[in-house]
Amino acid sequence: MSTPQPESTLRRALKGSKVLVKRHLQDIAPRETLRARRDHVAVTGAVPELDGIESAMAPHMDRLKPFHTDYCDRIGHPVHAASLELTALVLLLCERLNVQKVVDLGSGFTSWALRDWAKGRDVTVHSVDDSPEWLEKTRSYLAEQDLADERLHVWPEFAAAGFEGAFDLVVHDLGFMDTRFEVLDTVVGLARPGGLVLLDDMHKPDFRDKALAHLEAAGLTAYSLKRITRDRLTRFAYALPIPV
Ligand SMILES: C[S@@+](CC[C@H](N)C(=O)[O-])C[C@H]1O[C@@H](n2cnc3c(N)ncnc32)[C@H](O)[C@@H]1O
Q1: 0.70 exceeded by the pTM?
Q2: pLDDT by 10s per residue, the chain, length 244
Q3: Distance (Å) from CA 138 to ligand 1 centroid
Q4: Domains in the chain, ordered, with CATH?
Q5: Cβ of 236 below 6 Å from ligand 1
Q6: Residue 6 Cα to ligand 1 middle (Å)
Q7: Is 108 in contact with 79 (CB distance < 8 Å)?
Q8: What pLDDT, in 10s, does the model give residues 126-135?
């Protein structure tokens, strides 16, 4: 005879299954699958440095993996930390685009990875969070890893600090999804003409649809990077090239 489960455990298990089913249905949505296929080719017209980048991501992912595991175990959480795929792509784009000024919005693992990569290079990294608590966690983690903890900002001050058009590369992974949409225009404005914005967590249809419609209305085209950034949690990013 099976032991009766406490109700809370059952409810948690059911909730977990519902989340998994929802994620799967979102992941196989035909419109997004088609867009991913089409954009995989189209994006290299807008950002030629993305051509063939997938195979170059593997060594970066292998190198980053133990750090990512440690970060997720001790500091963040796999659901919140940027994926290995996205982080590897960010570093490769920094290399291929000769990035000199980069900002990661939504601090954490990406803040470490960018600063680690920037060591000994003429590259300036800024990291921003809307949560002062998470920014301090990032600061402690960077200090623990012997990395400079300068240029860490809380969002409202950073947004008002005159960084418009200052960055070659902007990684938008800031806060919860409502915040992410609210700050979208300001975030896009941080990239210089000819620069690039990466939008993470575009697997979330509500945010994706709203963000894409908003960008399109502003005359901007974002491209799905699902084919190269989809992770085991079904998360993926989009690329938004900023016209010259
Ligand atoms: C998607 S996370 C940003 C992740 C970051 N780019 C990284 O690579 O770790 C978005 C926001 O969640 C918050 N956050 C980060 N880690 C978290 C955690 N483990 N639990 C709850 N919130 C977290 C931070 O305020 C951050 O701005």
Answers
A1: yes
A2: 455 556 788 888 888 888 888 888 888 888 999 999 999 999 999 999 999 999 999 999 999 999 999 999 999 999 999 999 999 999 999 999 999 999 999 999 999 999 999 999 999 999 999 999 999 999 999 999 999 999 999 999 999 999 999 999 999 999 999 999 999 999 999 999 999 999 999 999 999 999 999 999 999 999 999 999 999 999 999 999 999 9
A3: 10
A4: 7-241 (3.40.50.150)
A5: no
A6: 32
A7: no
A8: 999 999 999 9
Compute the distance from residue 81 Cα to the ligand 1 centre, in Å: 6
Helices (H) and strands (E) in the chain, counts: 11, 7
How many A from CA of 45 to the centre of ligand 1? 32
Does ligand 1 come within 6 angstroms of the Cβ of 106? yes
Q: The tokens of 42 are what?
A: 């189209």
To test the pocket of ligand 1, the residue of 84, 104, 127, 134 to mutate (highest count of ligand atoms within 8 Å of its CB) is 134
